[in-house]
Amino acid sequence: MQSRAPRVCVVSATPLTMFFFFSEHLRELSKCADITVAYNKNYNSEVQPINAPVLEKHLDIQRGISFFKDFKALISMIIFFKKNKFDMVITLVPKSGLLGMLAARFCRIPVRLNIFQGEAWSVKVGATRVLLKLATTLTAICSTNLLAVSNSQRNFLIREGIAPAAKVVVLGSGSIAGVDLKRFQPNQESRKIIRGQYNINDGAKLLLFVGRITRDKGVVHLVRTFAKILIDEPNTFLIIVGPDEEGITVELQSLINRENQHKLIFTGFTARPESFMAAADILCLPSLREGFGMVALEAAACALPCVGSNIYGLRDAIADKKSGLLVAVEDENALLDGLKTLIYDLNLCARLGNYGRLRVLSDFDSQIVVGKYLTYFKERLNI
Questions:
Q1: Which of 179, 153, 152 is nearest to 295 (CA)?
Q2: Are residues 12 and 40 in the same domain?
């Protein structure tokens, strides 16, 4: 029996991951453990504070590669871990995974858990791929436990030799957080409000992207494809919801003819993506890589079909030809065909949307998914 509550530190490069994917875990785990969350507070300043009784620690973790800053962050983490004597360290994204697991291993923290959510090197080539893959392997070696958020991701990690099969676990049907079914559901009132706010008539086809605006999310491919759609379907709009992390908004706007640029709408970050999902007709996820593709599940809960890349992670989130359509990655012609298929077939859209919602209700209710994670955490902490 422990004489004190277990001490747990959750590490992420940005608060965005904590806010969207781990808030409920933190709230529930804080009932039986002392929780500290550590991340770079300089990222995503628009994100609201985590609504849970946790301590917050700023760590200067960079998302990109910076050997000097990374080494400095590693030393800071080691000092912080030694001082606080944590019983468990959980890491959520690749950079924090590497630094967090190295520091936790050095400090001999008993439970070192990394949650894989998508590997950047899966779409890289040459020396960059080798270096990033080595970092992922080192993360796995330094951990005591590994979780993958989808079965296709687990298979990828095992196939690439990152870790043995026995060490990589998927909880339930996958996903890190599941879907809050009270928030994500069809909502005609939200549809009217959002379309009215952006001057989109009810008869228009509304495409939607939700996520970080980065090249590896496939947004350049999406906007170029949207420009082609406008040639035949001028009463179509595309809303892009999320923070521009690479400063490419102007570049994306330049891909659309000046007379149609009002049909490409950037909203920036929002804490209420479900309002946009209720207003849209099709979700677009042409990602180059995903750990699971939670946005696709959230959209499905709103009865919104998705056209997404046929990559690991999205194969789990999108049931092909049942809740959406999977298309070849980085293939703009395939993306165009998939989007036009749904634009021209309202009955198919409805069937896919209805099936997707029923699937989420059955397999991805957040209460069930988060419950599985909490059980797993408590078992590791012996509480």
A1: 179
A2: yes
